[in-house]
Amino acid sequence: MTPEVNSEQLAYCVEAVRRIREVVGSDLIGAYLHGSLALGDFHHERSDIDLLAVTARAVVADLKPLLCKALSPSSLPCPAVGLEFSLVTRGSLRCGDTAPNFELHIATDTKTGTERCIDGTGRAGDTDLVMHYAVLRSRGVTLVGPEPVEVFPEVRRDHLLDALRGELEWAMTNGSPSYQVLNAARAWRFLEDDVICSKTEGGEWARVRHDRSAIDAALGHRRGNTDAQPNHAEAVEFVRAIEQRLAATSERQATTET
Q: How far apart are CA 223 and CA 73, in angstroms?
């Protein structure tokens, strides 16, 4: 377990895994921590706890509501902004998928005490899983089961670049300027160095390679040192520049492959 996981967070993760196993039984292959807590970039006021579990086979439909109830904030209060939980089968873990299938996704909100449960049966896959699998292979934390590199597929670089571009597009519509800038910074670092990193690590890497004003403002905001956000225009300019770099790289790779 990484040093950044405190006793309250660890107790929550252990109990969550116990409840997952109680529902799916011996079909549980492993449960893993990813996201900001695994990457050492957790901030209590801004971060979720990101868990992913793998089962040997599809989960019986009747069991999925039981999982939602077991992990709901009213049943298991989360010591973070909320829980982001995905359940996948071992058979769905294929390296060529750009939108891997999933069994169940649960998103909880600690402040409102609400949860959103999405049954993956009959749905298109989840493009977010591409990034999750990359983080898990690189720096995922095992709660139970084999090590992540033994379970999760190696994500193709072009698929990961597409996933990063998708995250930037989402951030431009839904994220704050701070989130936008640091998301772009970590995408840039992967593009240049093939390194999977946190938003803060991406910002620290980028600030010596780019005009620092927007990046330093974003880092200060993420660390809780200030409520001020980066200048909106500067944030947009930086994100668009990284989007262009990602697009150009993807185009070069596509041309090479053909």
A: 26
